[in-house]
Amino acid sequence: MKVLYGTIGTQQQQQGSFSLSRDYQLLGRPLYKLDLSWPRNPELFIGEVFGVALDQFAGVVYVAQRGDNVPKVLLFTTEGDFLMPWNTTTLEMPHGIFLADAASSNPTVWITDVGNGPYGHCIKQYSPSGKLLQVLGTPGKAGSGLNPLQFDQPAEIFVHSSGEMYIVDGDGGMNNRLIKLSKEQEVLWMHGEKGQGLAQFYIPHSVTVDNAQRVWVADRGNKRIQVFNSITGEWLGTWGSCFTEDAPYSVRLTPDKKYFVVVQLNTNQISLLDAPPVGLIGQCRVVSVIQLADDVKPHLVDLDLKTGALYVAEIGAQQAQKFTPFSLRGGFL
């Protein structure tokens, strides 16, 4: 793949003994560029950053981090100003984070907790200020039960605008499941068998739903993305040819629905793949790659559905970064 831009935008910022790296290269079609001004106070990242979620209507970015004696969630504006930390003690090891009901007057934040303590192995819903509202699963107890609902290291949750929930459960635990819950949190369908076959998983790590009733799952351990019908749960197809070097860790759609954003942690890459038209899965095709510096270890991402800005949680660099879309032909991307 042709390098269209060399190292563009280099910035080193000291955080204790760790140097925040802003080195990157663009390969293929140039779709995103790094916003060097975000955030304005990167020294506030004092833990390993695992997830990020956007409230595009309020202009707020939620960043989930891990570590002893660190706030588990930090809030920034989309312009880069620091707002506040969450001082909750109910989070142990946040993994995935998702902003639901952003367009309503009562948005909420869902966080998967993979901790092994009394608050782990469950999924929690919070108010924007960090007040715990409800818990899915059995806190402190790993399991595979459906009634009552149990999880073991749930990786990520996607809450549809309908209120239906899609959960990938199994960031290395006993479960390897994709579960769909109704708005009333009843199980509608599930795929829960470990393996390499169709509709089987090995460490399902990220999930998103498009506008064509398709569920896209980053099946990390099998180095592939699997696709399902969101209504019936029927298996529709698999993408694997783009992930021979490293597995997909995160999968999200750009606001214009043209591209999937897929993160590969071990190769330190953020790839943009062509989104297929309705009725077709086909084979994956990489259009653009953001090659990050060594050991940055990008993990999960989210996008601003108003501006198209891409936010990336980076475990190795212990930071979150913002990338903004190039304007091509006067429009987004």
UniProtKB/TrEMBL annotation:
PROSITE patterns assigned to the protein according to its UniProt record, in alphabetical order: NHL
Listed InterPro entries: 6-blade_b-propeller_TolB-like, NHL_repeat
NHL repeat segments: 192-231
Keywords: Glycoprotein, Repeat, Signal
UniProt key word Plastid: no
Keyword Repeat: yes
PANTHER family, per database record: PEPTIDYL-GLYCINE ALPHA-AMIDATING MONOOXYGENASE
Protein name stated in the entry: NHL repeat-containing protein 3
Organism per entry: Seriola lalandi dorsalis
